[in-house]
Design goal:
By secondary structure, the protein is of the alpha/beta class. Helix content is about 30%, strand content about 20%. The strands form two sheets. The protein has a seven-stranded mixed β-sheet with strand order 8-9-7-10-13-12-11. It has a six-stranded parallel β-sheet with strand order 2-1-3-4-6-5. The protein starts with a strand and ends in a 15-residue tail after the last helix.
Amino acid sequence: MIKAGIIGATGYAGNEIVRLLLGHKEVEIKWLYSKSFAGQDYASIYRNLFKIVDSPCIADDISSLADEVDVIFTATPQGFLASVLTDELLAKAKFIDLSADYRIKDVATYEKWYKLEHKSPELIKKAVYGLCEINRKDIAGTRLLANPGCFTTCSILTAYPLVKEGLIDADTLIINALSGVSGAGRGAKVANLFCEVNESAKAYGVTNHRHTPEIEEQLSYANGSPIMINFTPHLVPMNRGIFATETATLKSGVTAEDIKAAYEKHYGNEQFIRLMKDDQVPETRFVEGSNFVDIGFKVDERTNRVVMMGAIDNLVKGAAGQAVQNMNIMFGFDEAEGLRAIPMVP
């Protein structure tokens, strides 16, 4: 049994970590950290946990709190962990960070896209990018885990096998992705009010969304050389979910069977990636509340392009679920522990 602390426990991703860890047989939640709600009972903020969690939120000294736990999840805004993390803290506990602070290896790229000065660039080299199905071996040995973003998790996993196997011209990759409103976080914003979002859909961050360099960096590793993509996110009126539609030009002679074989090679034994049958396409409603990634594809012979489709729950596989999956790998637990929930329908 290990002990865990959660910083940023009152955000949507933080609450999802709490929910998942409560069903984990190897973990005890030691404390819940929130500056905004310090002193308030956690169950008064999230009443789904009424008579399940009886702890108050705290905002004590992080160094002292690190002495009490084996792992700390930071579900915090960009820049927070980078401003407080030190080698001394890392020696006390393993950190799983859900922000972008340690995802991008090039400091200048991070600072350009996030408009922040990185406060601990010397620690970036110690971080492992926590895309479990791709970096499992490196994840097992790290003390600093950079948990991928929701758009990036879905986008990268959907295209990765075809990029890795050289089946597509990676520089022709175009990604259009839809997100539920919870992806914007729990903070009050006019643009996310019900009347602003309901019965509408919109693109945002067009040509400059900050997940772009993260997707490019990881797929460039798979490609063996740098690539550039077009990534356009969209907000749609649903609570949860990411749906990515990705297109790219096929290399000469590549067939649908080649593509299917590539997906099977990389994901055929992955318990959280479900490859669709030929006549099926993913749907967000069939992954809701779960850690699954559903992936399908269709070849357009007329244009010699492939259409790849992926669906995840942005708060589970796109955030908290992947964080718990990473924790399981880091501590040598069953990778699926705490993550066996079946998707909720309807």
